[in-house]
Amino acid sequence: MFDSIIDEYFNTTQSSNWSIPSVLKYVESKRYLYVDDISILKSEVYAVLRRHQNRMNMQQRAVSKLEKLLNNYDRLFSVKEIEQFINDLKKKEEEKDLHTSIRRNVTVVYNVEAEKDHHQNKAMLRKLHDNEDQVSKASSSNDQESDTERQDEITSDVVSDASDLCDDQMRELDDIEELEASGNKIKDGSEEKWTLSTGKDVYMVLNDPAYFGILDLSGEEPEVKELFTIEEWAEMQEDFSKTVVLKKMDSKEEELLYNLFDKIEEVLKRKSDDIITDIEECIIKGYPKINVIRRLIQTYSYNLDQLKVSMSEGSFSNNFTNMMTKGIITYNRKFAYDEGEIQSLSSAMIANLNKKPVDRSLIGQRCDFRITCDGFEAVIGLRSGGLPEACHSKKWNDKVDLMVAMRDVLLKEAIEDNGVECKDFRNLYTLGVHSYGFYYNLYALDWKAKGLWRLGLLKKIKLPQSNDQLLMIEKLTTLLLRVESTLDYIMPIRNELAVKASRLHRDRRSSFCLKPYTFAEQGQSELINFLRKQKLMLAERHFQVLRDEEIIGLAFLLMDERKFRDCGFKMGSAVVLMDIVNRINDD
User: Fold this and answer.
1) How many CB atoms lie within 10 A of CB 505?
2) Which of 15, 284, 288, 569 could be a cystine partner for 62, CB 3.0 to 4.6 Å?
3) Nearest-5° Cα angle at 352, 520 to 244
4) Considering the entire predicted model, what is its pTM?
5) Which of the four pLDDT bands, split at 50, 70 and 90, describes residue 331?
6) Helix (H, G, I), strand (E, B), or coil: what is residue 415?
7) Does the keyword Coiled coil apply (predicted)?
8) Which H helix or E strand runs over 369?
9) What is the pLDDT of residues 483-497, one digit of tens each?
10) Alpha-carbon distance 480 to 550, whole Å?
């Protein structure tokens, strides 16, 4: 039943990290476990250990570790950590049963009461109508018999209709539970957490991060890197590179570009007094894009001649980095380019999720340039100071701002496309540029698990500081052409997610629950907004007004305890639940 998963654990984990608790956690990350599965797991783990012990090609350390596990097997399965693991499984099963029961009871009782009120009102109208039309007075006994018969008829109608309504509601709830159950098979594993082969939960390591739930895999922050072993760090970077790809440029375009720089190299070797005019002669006929790049290099060379020891941030960006970025990436006019002290549109939206119209709006994260397509901020750029190079704290703060802005870009897409499968959303990533001094760094950010985003360094470029180093600009030019190819790869993924989100209704999958990729720093605000929207939608669909008890029932129906806890709520506190209700009713 679990043989293949257990074998996979022992084959992918170093022998020094083998332990019974880590085996159980690894199996739980792959499949949903019940308490009854522990006894099966115990026998199967023992069988796998015996099978590995009989192998001939194992190292001495691994053999010693296996013997230690086998000799103390029963004792290892009775330690406090295993007992806690089993208690957690029991708690999950009890919570699941409780939520199912509450959801059924809230929905059924609500509909039965509503149906009963409807029939009572109908009976009163019928009685008034009969009294008006009654010409002759009937005896009190006849009236009593008539009322009794009518009341019996009403009661029969209520019971019959309520029974039918309950049956329909139960069938609908069963369908919803079946869909949610199929989704929980994934959610209990890779959607909720990222567990490494060593059994380490990455989110728990970053339980209180200064990076707003963002794991910096660039290696530029030693404090983050020290939290993991060398093997774990390599595993995380390898997993990141499977999703995030810096695409190669077109082979024909690459050949022409190299030809251009070969010609420029010949010009520089002549040591002419007029380099800019000589570069003008390096024409690649029939390829206007390459010739546009040549003119950009000419402009860069001219600006290097005018370079001063001290230069402002805006002047450096306009004369060097932003000038090259805009000229190359926007050549085909597929992407819109904005620059200056501007705000990230996605970050502004996330920052104002829970703001009222009369409140002062928050601006969110600022950026120095952004490249957008169909409202998606595919590239965000930040410049840290001009010349001389900015201090370390300035560069670090700007990098954190860039990370948060990039996360907000994906978070905005996550909220708008809520309901698509998590494995599909993992394919989406966004790019960011951080430049300082004569350096140009390209980053990418994607989503891995609930509350966990990953930032990686794709390229670090050194820019030329004089015309003697002008040929160094080839690396920047090549990088920007690869960024253009990467954006052509990202945009279809983004559009496909939007289309899938718009078709969720086809399979009755319009999501009542927020997916794991929508949770971040602003999770509490998102929850309140989401419940408010659901309240209005259900009120319009079923009844005009929802009472507090029904909103609490709605909260139970839409969110489980774990999601409330992640947003800062505790299900056991009625005060907190009523606080949610009050905040929902504020508008």
Assistant:
1) 9
2) 15
3) 40
4) 0.61
5) very high
6) helix
7) yes
8) strand 366-373
9) 999 999 999 999 999
10) 55
